[in-house]
Amino acid sequence: MLLAQILAAAIFVIMFLLIVLDKIERHYVTLGCGLLTLVVVFGIVMQSPHAILETLNLSSIFTPDFWYAASESSESSSGINWATIFFIAGMMVMVEGMAKAGFFRWLCMRLAKLVNYKPIPLFVAFMIMSAFLAMFIDSITVILFLAAVTVELAKLLKFNPVPMILSEIFCANLGGSATMCGDPPNIIIGTSLGYSFSDFLTNTGLMAGISLILIVAYFFLVFHKELEEAEKNAVDTSSMPDPKEAIKNKKDFTLACIIFGCAVVMLVTHAQTGLTVAFIGTVITIVTLLAFARCAKELLSKVDYKTLLFFIGLFMVVGGLEQTGILEIIAGYIGRASKGNLKLMIAIIIWVSAVASAFVDNIPFAATMIPVIKSLAATQGVNLETLAWALSMGTDIGGSATPIGASANVVGTSVAAKNGYVIGWGTYCKSAAPATIIVVTISMVIIFIRYC
């Protein structure tokens, strides 16, 4: 077993290093390392077909609980979490349909018109919209469209879009932490530990909501000089494009809104209805493809299959750590370091998660830590939910601190750079790092007060 543990740990470390170096596409990295885990660790060293089957976890798809259950099965954290894969795929298809119908561009232009194209109200409104949309839609998609529209408005209204893009990125990550479907780490935590949309909304949602108020004020104070300068520019608002121009097809737009509304309702009520996120993701996919039948192939071609493959490979590598008992060792170390003190345990989890997620992808970190906190809860006699909320806020918010900490950061800065607004590490971290510390601290204090 010792050799298997060493090899599993080595494969995991190599995978992390290759992801950070970013020289090879990350889905190739995780799939290659996942295959090594199955063949070398489980097949050759452990000679355990059972470990291979447990990690592949294909049998879970054919069980009734995968599609319909009172709550998500906590056993899904062993091996590949297919519920996460199905759900993310469904959301990707739905978002592509909404983009095709012009929903995001219409929403941005409509909101800009409502605040009469004034830079300061626009700044605040776009931050709030970024956080709200990211509660239901992947933050990458939110920033992709929001940053593009921000640059367009900046050119028309003659202001620097960098402050607005930086604040939008942070708020998208913050909004994503509020719900189960907002950020990939939350999807993994929810499907693995059996938590519902409402569980996240009433726990991490509360922390995100309180933090958002302070963060809006924080970013306004940081960028108030640039915003006040922009307010002085006199611009003819009558020349601004009509939001209706963004709607390419009224029928498609209506269908996209209905599908999005139904998806939100199903997610909010899935704990009561028993519909699992795997079921919801599958239904969303089918309905979207039927509604946009004439361009179904185009929608499917735009799905980010590389991310889905990345998840599959990642789960296999983490399965290697789980099957060889390494995660139990890590849990034991945290337990000893905290000496059974719940507050110290929470502080370790939330700050280690935040710091790690600032420099490495928060998705593999979250997937790795889930079995660790399960083991901690079992061995230290602490509430698993408390540790889960600490892990969620740490991984979701920690990624906001640097330009490479979360995918939304990379996308937002890339959109700005393509339009001639290069955002360096110094510029990014100067505003985002203190904001990250503020939110992580607020979250930790709220967890202390509410759960300890």
Automatic annotation (TrEMBL):
Membership in a protein family: Belongs to the CitM (TC 2.A.11) transporter family.
Transmembrane segments: 6-21, 28-46, 80-99, 120-149, 200-223, 253-271, 277-296, 308-334, 340-360, 432-451
All residue ranges annotated as the Citrate transporter-like domain in the record: 16-394
Membrane-protein topology: Multi-pass membrane protein
Name used for this protein in its record: Citrate transporter-like domain-containing protein
Recorded GO MF terms: arsenite transmembrane transporter activity
Cellular compartment(s): Cell membrane
Main location as per UniProt: membrane
A Pfam family per the record: CitMHS
Cellular compartments per GO CC: plasma membrane
Keyword Cell membrane: yes
Record keywords, A-Z: Cell membrane, Membrane, Transmembrane, Transmembrane helix, Transport
